[in-house]
Amino acid sequence: MPMIHILSAPPFSKADEVVKGRWYPEQPPALPDETLQQYTDRCAGAQGPSKYPYDHWRWRQCGIGWHGDCSFGLYGPVEQEENPCACPCHETPQGRAVLAAARARWAKR
Known about the structure:
The chain is mainly α. It has a domain at 36-107. The protein is built from four helices and no strands. The protein has helices at 36-43, 60-63, 71-75, 93-107. The longest helix is centred in the C-terminal third of the chain and has 15 residues, at 93-107. The model is unreliable at 1-7 (pLDDT under 50).
């Protein structure tokens, strides 16, 4: 059975502007009147650089908070990878534990 991810509504920002930052382990706040789909698209980078909430590049999975599913974390850097995921989860003890559990889960498939 595939794993189902349930995204809860993110905390809302009081500002109408995107606040860029590291945002880990918490996710960036949603903008006022932003739908869950718009929030997900913005965190995945689909709304362009001006709306992207991170001050570094992330692969889609880390961008939307699915750190345990990040292919970069599961499989390591791909040879000649031009845009490695720079999410802090790959550098922290907490993030490494999440990724180790995900690798173990994937190895059992």
